[in-house]
Amino acid sequence: MAGIWLDVLDEIARTCRDHGRGDLLQAVRRKRAQLLDPTLRVLVVGEPNQGKSQLVNAIVNAPVCPVGDGRTTVLPTVVQHADVPSVAVVQAPPATPGRSAGAALPGAVERTPVPVDRIADGVAGTLGRRPGGGPAYVEIGLPRALLGAGLVLVDTPGSDEVGAPGAAASVAALARADAVLLVTDSTRELSVAELNVLLHVTRSHPNVAVVQTKIDLVSDWRAVAERNRRHLAEAGVPAALIPVSAALRLRAAATDDRTLNAESGFPALIARLQRDLAGKSDVLARAAVGLTARTVVEQLAAPLRAELESQRVEEQSGPMARLHAAQREVEELRRCSVRWQNTLNDEMADLLSDLEYDLRDRTRQILREVDEAFDSADPLVAWDTFQEWLARSLTEAAEANHEWLVQRCDFVARRVAANFARYGYDVLPPWSLTVPEDLADRLPEMERPTIDRFTASQKVITGMKGSYGGLLMFGLALTLAGMPMINPVSIGAGALFGGKSIRDESRQLLRRRQATVKTAVQRHVDDFFVRVVKDCRDAARQVQRMLRDHFAALTDELQEGIIQSLRTAKQAADSDAAARDQRQREIKLKMTRLAALYEQAQQLTAGRPAAVPLEPRA
Length: 618
Known about the structure:
This protein has helices at 2-18, 22-36, 52-60, 119-123, 145-148, 167-176, 192-202, 221-235, 246-255, 258-263, 266-278, 280-317, 319-374, 379-417, 439-442, 456-479, 488-604; strands at 40-46, 77-81, 86-91, 110-113, 136-142, 151-155, 179-185, 208-213, 240-243. It is α/β, with parallel strands linked by helices. Helix 1 (2-18) runs antiparallel to helix 2 and helix 16 crosses helix 17 (488-604).
């Protein structure tokens, strides 16, 4: 079975080399040498004062790790087999640029022997450790059958001692560990920090167990163990929980009490370690290769995915994006051309309509004032004053209308130019339309209308006609009374009727003169309206043609620049798309090979049975 996982591990190494990841290649090679090593390195981790050192002592049935009396494990302690007891402090050389201290060559480390009776000083880092050196650890050799079978125990400092001298050595030991035991005591449940440690460790180590110590000191340790198992399940940590008592184990070893030894829980723990040792080259190795494949594939696939994402981003912001932007600019310019032409036509049509209505409204107001004035005034008397007022009023109306024409043409130009606002510069045409200074001289002059006068002869004739009727009527009536036809009464009546006839005729002539003047003014105002409207229309059409030519030329200029940028963007996009497609095919091929490698590695652990936690008897 070793050949299968070893082939997969070698394939992982070749993949790392093909991807140019020398760091991963070295890590895979170290993992290969570690898995081919028949020894099983068990790393004991946990927070301070949880019983890690006592656990190691109980496993080997010897007080190799100092405990009690305030002693603290500062340097990692490696307990392995030796024919005779031995202790040494092993220290790597200091780190140099380009090489870490943990990457020292074999044989380059410095070994300082320590007397067996001074193990505590060596573990505390006060004996055998040279200041300024690299990471150090204590190596203890002990003649034990369990250790002789290949078991190596590594006791580590407390996990909260970040600045401890042995912290770097602990990290290196974690990388070389085959199994990890997290130690927690029965006085409390698993903490959040311990669960986080477990989550971190299980990502890189397939064989992790939680050892719950000091069950001899807590009566309800089973309830604590059950809650801990529930915490592990909720956190998704695939680790078995084994409750033990190191004190009972050591006491049972001293008295050779098998029952007490069974109650300590250590038979289950030692059986697990022996099973792991026996299955290192098969079950444990396959699981380790699966985790190694997952780690390597994640690190190799991450930059590939990032490159694909960057290419997608570049596609959105690179030559293809510029091509799409240029295409959108061409389409937008086409829509802009339609918009400004529609705006110009609509605004000029509204302008002409509004100008005509404005001038019509002003002339009607003038005509209403003329009607009101000549309802009482005599044209013979007020004509000169009226003519001056009418000319002034019509001139003011024409000037106001032309002023509005200038303002509205400027407004129309700005409305049309607003369609080009997105192109970022001033597109208003040069403007020169103003109100003509000789506008009054260009307006039609009103001629004096022919007005009937009431001459003296006309008054005499009219008076004689009226007096004749009165004289005759009253004279005949008085003859019936015996008076002559010509008498003072009939003469007075004739004079009265003659005066009335003169007044009536005078009023009729006045109304005819007023009507004649009103008609003449109406014709003059109509002529004025037609001429002014014609001038305004001509000016508006001239402005419309000028704006049309200006913005048409501007559209042609913009279109030429946009089409040129479109050609350039298309050429760049074509060449960039070809290179990007080639690179994407290469990345996808690498991703496919990584997925196949990962699937091949996961098949190694597909049939591996899950570890079942064991409990000691009550």
